[in-house]
Amino acid sequence: MSLDTETFTVGFEHRAVVVDNLTRTQIVQYAGVSGDYNPIHTDEIFATQVAGYPSVFAHGMLTMGMTGRMLTDLVGDGRLTKYGGRFTAQVWPGDTLEATATVTSIEEVDGAKLVDFQVVTRNQNDLIVFSGSATARLD
Amino acid sequence: MTAPVFPIEAGHIMMFARAIGDENPIYFDAEYGEKVGLGGVIAPPTYLQASAQYDPDYGLRPRQGQPWIGSGRTPTGLVRETGGSGESKGGGGLHAEQHFEFLRPIRPGDVLHSTRRLGETWEKQGRRGGALVFSESITEYRDESDELVAIARSIGVRTQQPVAN
Fold first, then answer.
1. CB pairs under 8 A between A and B
2. What is the ipTM of this complex?
3. Domain total for chain B?
4. Most buried one in A41, A71, B24, B50, CB count within 10 A?
């Protein structure tokens, strides 16, 4: 499902909670499916006693994947041409994340609209955990 | 570098979508995909990350008969360096940035092959002291007709101590 292309104007903003109370189990699910079995994400004993972190933490790509859902729910499936960003802080078990997409520019190319978004994901303390951008092709 | 072949499978896409908490039927229901004009199931945008499953040299997968960094009988299966408790703490690689460019949706049945090249390397001083070394790698994914499907640019950082907010 996507919004009408007329909905998008520069400054348009969309927000969605992409995870509420992130579980260690979901982090394990992501480890299993992505193939990234780094114990820093899944092994509390290793993460705390060997690596010196307060607990396990999520793969950056899990945050980016969950944030991607906010984008595809907004623009529709198969429409992203670019999506990227920086992992700016760790995401911990118990975190609740809200992702925001803001339209930064709209360009007409060959009868299609290319819509650029700024993408920011924050945790429950308003700390930015992922910061990036995306482009969607809408026709 | 290595050119692993990444066969795209419907079950893998379904499990990937579950792991990122996305219940959109486009990731498991081919009929739905037909109905909405996408011709079947497609993969979520960040799915290419799971190509690590098919990378024979991927370092973050346990291997039979080899010690594993994670806990078992002891907190880590690696032999500690002599005299060392503190100094190796938190040292290691973290994912700093990821950027994708998509030329078309990825679908079950695609068999992608990839080539990876190293990009730039640079160093920054961490906020809590200790050098942070960044390195970039660029992976191009092509289909069986050798058409470019996606480009992934990954930036990793090596830290000398735990980095936590």
1. 159
2. 0.95
3. 1
4. B50
Tell me if chain A has a CB within 8 Å of the CB of B165.
yes
- Order of strands across the sheet with A13-19? A13-19, A97-109, A112-122, A128-138, A80-87, B92-102, B148-159, B131-142, B111-125, B5-7
Residues of A in contact with B99 (CB under 8 A): 82-85, 132
Using the Cβ of B124 and the Cβ atoms of chain A, whether some distance falls under 8 Å is answered with: no
Cα(B20)–Cα(B46) distance, integer angstroms: 10
Calpha distance A60→B20 (Å, rounded)? 12
A5-22+58-138: CATH class: alpha beta
Token pair for residue A66? 């969950």
- DSSP annotation of A89 reads S
> Given an 8 Å threshold on Cβ–Cβ distance, is A52 in contact with B52?
no
For residue B100, give the nearest of A43, A60, A83 by CB distance.
Answer: A83
pLDDT tens string B42-84: 999 999 999 999 999 899 999 999 999 999 999 999 875 544 4
Q: Which CATH number is B108's domain given?
A: 3.10.129.10
CA distance linking residue B34 with residue A115, whole number of Å: 25
Contact yes or no for B94 and A87 at CB 8 A: yes
- Report yes or no: A72 at the B interface, CB cutoff 8 Å: yes
Chain A residues touching B46 at Cβ < 8 A: 61, 64-65, 68, 83
d(CA A92, CA B90): 16
**pLDDT 10s digits, A21-66:** 999 999 999 999 999 999 999 999 999 999 999 999 999 999 999 9
CB proximity list for A21: less than 8 A, separation 6 or greater: A94, A95, A96
